[in-house]
Amino acid sequence: MADSIAPASKETVRLWRIWRTTRQMLRDRGYEILEEEVEVSLDDFRARFHGPAGENIEIDRNHMAYTLKPSLEMIARYTKSDRHGNKKEPEIGTIRVEFNGDTQIGVKTVRNFAHTMEQNSVYSGILVTAVSVSSACHKIAQATFPKVMELFEETDLIVNITQHELVPKHIMLSPEEKQALLERYRLKHNQLPRILKEDPVARYLALRRGDIVKIIRASVTAGRYATYRTCQ
């Protein structure tokens, strides 16, 4: 008779939720990932990272790492044109996601992750940490420019904030949509209401300065209405 699988521990459930949120987040940004690889069940998560023994061993966060490529639509959204209309190199590429369970995160950890990004030839990286990181770590992350490194705490990802009923739908506009919007209303970027890069939804979508998002809200009279914000 096959061994029965022990009930999932709270820590396993917690890591499953965090891991799943990162995949939902990257799907929503436009990376290539199948829906069945996003909405992975708790049982499948345990089987993948615990193995047949169920709860006999702790999950190794290193095994939770993964890499995704941007979709063609995403590449088009991040490809700008010069003043002659010629397309530049896309400002997007493969992304690497890693999880770190250390009780202390220092500059060395962040530099090591930057080195991992370089070794794997990825354009972007997300490091999810079990504890908060210092301002010095954030400075190191910013220093990887033009590559993009993002630092998230696990507590930020236990719940997908965009699925909360009080959070309206945010849609990032393509370069063509941005231009059409500004021309239609005869506006400049700085004349639109702002959304800060530190805003939770802005971080979820990885908005960059100058990006414009369409925000769709519920309305008692109109059903739905849209507003626009530019990232600062």
TrEMBL record:
Predominant place of localization: nucleus
UniProtKB keywords: DNA-directed RNA polymerase, Nucleus, Transcription
InterPro entries in the cross-refs: Arch_Rpo5/euc_Rpb5 (IPR014381), RNA_pol_Rpb5_N (IPR005571), RNA_pol_Rpb5_N_sf (IPR036710), RNA_pol_subH/Rpb5_C (IPR000783), RNA_pol_subH/Rpb5_CS (IPR020608), RPB5-like_sf (IPR035913)
Pfam families in UniProt: RNA_pol_Rpb5_C, RNA_pol_Rpb5_N
GO BP annotations listed: transcription by RNA polymerase II; transcription elongation by RNA polymerase I; tRNA transcription by RNA polymerase III
Keyword Lyase: no
Keyword hit for Kinase: no
RNA polymerase Rpb5 N-terminal domain ranges (all copies): 10-117
GO molecular function, one term: DNA binding
Superkingdom: Eukaryota
GO cellular component assignments: RNA polymerase I complex; RNA polymerase II, core complex; RNA polymerase III complex
Subcellular location: Nucleus
Domain RNA polymerase subunit H/Rpb5 C-terminal: 159-231
Family of this protein: Belongs to the archaeal Rpo5/eukaryotic RPB5 RNA polymerase subunit family.
Protein's recorded name: DNA-directed RNA polymerases I, II, and III subunit RPABC1
Species of origin: Microthyrium microscopicum
